[in-house]
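Shipment paperwork, digital attachment
Item: protein structure file
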Amino acid sequence: MRRAEINVFFPIEFRYVAADDCWLSPFYQRAGASISVHQYHKQDYRPFFKLVEPIFWKYQGRPHWGKLHTLSARNLRAVYPRFDDFLRMRRQLDPRGRFLNDHARKLFLG
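Attachment content:
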């Protein structure tokens, strides 16, 4: 971050999390660590994410659904074993996409 001269105003958060059975959980069938990075909302997050996301990808990190990330549906399919099962169920329960926001629409319909 220093070499790239990216100002970060928030601490990087770290915590351990137990495995669970939720299909789109970052901890589906595996315990792990949550590492959260944030950027001030008026600041462009992309340069910071460009630095940290490759580290997360190297270890098959799974993004939190309520947070910004740059992964596509193809990328998510590779790290979430039940991604396609979720997509099928989502289509059955919400065929018109009424419960999707712009971000989710891009991931699940795009």
